[in-house]
Amino acid sequence: MRELLRIPGGKQTALTSYDPAGTPGGPRTKAEGVAATARTGERLAGLQERLWAAGSAGDRRRVLLILQGMDTSGKGGTVKHVIGALNPAGCRVRAFAAPTPEELAHPFLWRIMKALPQPGEIGIFDRSQYEDVLIARVRELVPAGQIGRRYGHINRFEKSLADDGVTVLKCFLHISYEQQKRRLLARLDNPDKHWKFSPGDIEDRALWPAYQEAYEIALDRCSTEEAPWYVVPADRKWYRNWAVGTLLLDHLEDIDPQYPKADFDVAASRKRLLAT
Questions:
Q1: Is the overall model pTM greater than 0.85, yes or no?
Q2: Burial class (CB in 10 A: 0-12, 13-18, 19+), 122
């Protein structure tokens, strides 16, 4: 899966070459995909418990899953269906909205650093530091030269995370313009979903080409050996969930966390317990 979805190095990214409704390497049908995602969830839960246990014994390794994508691409849905299978005690989920006045008073990575996972945890970012080279670029919130320098800041930051035992997994949830319209209409047609809709979503659709270009630049400049980008087709929710879950599973299997060995005399403790 990593080879299928990873942004290739050495060439310019063109999002038009990726099919948002595609299912590369995935199950053939929705039913098969949902079943496969459930099986993946069981394996993820076991590995997460081992990672959490290893962290309690001093293993500094942890995972940071970054989810980026246009509105309705399914960042929250991915958290619900993939991370929902895990023990919340070992997860740290953070959704990044517009910066607060306090956050704006600091360098742009300040709020990101405060939300990083601790050893043994899986951190999940719904949006991330990339907002500061995406919306900031499209909306011209900061000078162009400052945006250009931020890519380098991000790459150095992510390398420092990798050097400190963080596995950085970055997924761009790739949705089509037409599918986004259908999902926004579904929100408008369901009163229970109105809280998820903003008139600004329509304004952002008018800027779709600019956002696509901003994503292409970010994917090109910030897909590194330490923290590569993966393009996940997101028109089919079941495939999106399966693909992200599979990528997370692959990375956790690479880490291969182990339960720590007992630092006490197990036999003696068992004997004492039986005597009570």
A1: yes
A2: buried
Alpha-carbon distance of 25 to 124, in angstroms, equals 24
Question: What is the per-residue burial (b if ≥16 Cβ within 10 Å, else e) of 153-190?
Answer: bbbebbeebeeeebbbbbbbbbbbeebbeebbeebeee
Structure tokens that stand for 106 in this block: 């600091």
Question: What pLDDT tens digit does each residue of the chain (276 aa) get?
Answer: 899 999 987 678 999 999 999 999 999 999 999 999 999 999 999 999 999 999 999 999 999 999 999 999 999 999 999 998 899 999 999 999 999 999 999 999 999 999 999 999 999 999 999 999 999 999 999 999 999 999 999 999 999 999 999 999 999 999 999 999 999 999 999 999 999 999 989 999 999 999 999 999 999 999 999 999 999 999 999 999 999 999 999 999 999 999 999 999 999 999 999 999
